[in-house]
User: Which sequence fits this backbone?
């Protein structure tokens, strides 16, 4: 099987001064994952590596620099699912963990479960994952915006990745800081299988982004995968999923997809959604901020 990877930096509005950072962050994430796939590594490794890059980049609402909750805390959710055995792992409302996607991966490999708050944090600690004082995940910019109660236009939302490896395994991963000012303990769609992500090697894999309260009732990721199962191309399946959300609820969302043949697709109804993808035919990732405008920022 020819490997493929696609990442997204969240369905959102990207101000002009943040375009370059969104571009380079998504590109770096796709490159990190691709390096693993290119060498025959697994899609699990690739998705984890790509999402870790996005979590470590304060441009994105995941890991360090996440949006803050009503108490001024960074409280995050993440999940991973793989399409061969339908294994999955998820964490919700955890604090003081640098790379929540790595916790989700370890849970998936240990025993599929959704661990929230102290339970997820304890799992991370007991499995030697990178924990830190919870204040270390707050970026200066994010703190200033929270203190001034500024409307955060370009940081709300989720990051995600979907990869297909040489063995034909499809994996999806998502990670988020949730919604600006959310109540402590709120968990959105990102960590919910079927909503924030889905992977089934019979059809494809999907990672979504958007307003959790809108993504959840339309089970967005599974809606996209069901469209693949109906024979739609990933482009059509992605558009179908977003159209379903628009028909039924209000809110912004986006999704990225790879089908079992390695074809990709993405769609969104927000102003922008940064994505980057890479295949064997390419020498560098293709990166987009708006779908109709491939970007080439040096
Ligand atoms: N998709 C992010 C959230 O609603 O939590």
Assistant:
């Amino acid at each position: 099987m020819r490997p493929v990877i696609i990442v997204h930096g969240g369905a959102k509005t990207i101000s002009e001064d943040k375009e370059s950072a969104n571009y380079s962050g998504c590109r770096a994430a796709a490159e990190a994952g691709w390096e693993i796939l290119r060498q025959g590594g697994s899609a699990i490794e690739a998705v984890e590596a790509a999402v870790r890059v996005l979590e470590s980049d304060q441009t994105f609402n995941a890991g360090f620099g996440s949006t803050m909750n009503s108490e001024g805390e960074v409280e995050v959710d993440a999940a991973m699912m793989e399409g061969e055995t339908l294994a999955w792992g998820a964490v919700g409302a955890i604090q003081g963990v640098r790379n929540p996607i790595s916790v989700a991966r370890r849970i998936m490999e240990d025993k599929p479960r959704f661990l929230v708050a102290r339970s997820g944090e304890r799992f991370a600690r007991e499995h030697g994952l990178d924990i830190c004082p919870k204040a270390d995940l707050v970026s200066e910019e994010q703190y200033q915006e929270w203190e001034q109660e500024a409307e955060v236009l370009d940081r709300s939302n989720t990051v995600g990745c979907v990869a297909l490896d040489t063995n034909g395994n499809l994996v999806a991963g998502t990670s988020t800081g949730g919604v600006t000012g959310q109540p402590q303990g709120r968990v959105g769609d990102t960590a919910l299988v079927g909503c924030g992500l889905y992977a089934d090697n019979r059809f494809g894999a999907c990672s979504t982004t958007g307003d959790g309260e809108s993504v959840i009732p339309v089970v967005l990721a599974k809606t996209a995968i069901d469209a693949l199962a109906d024979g739609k191309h990933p482009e059509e399946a992605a558009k179908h999923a977003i159209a379903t959300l628009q028909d039924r609820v209000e809110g912004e969302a986006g999704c990225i997809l790879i089908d079992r043949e390695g074809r990709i697709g993405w769609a969104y109804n927000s102003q922008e959604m940064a994505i980057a993808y890479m295949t064997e035919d390419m020498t560098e990732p293709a990166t987009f901020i708006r779908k109709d405008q491939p970007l080439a920022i040096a």
Q: What stands out?
A: The pocket of glycine is lined by residues 157-158, 176, 178-179, 188-190, 209-212 (CB under 6 Å). The chain is about 30% helix and 25% strand. The chain has a mean pLDDT of 94. The helical segments are 19-38, 43-55, 100-110, 117-126, 140-147, 212-215, 220-229, 234-248.
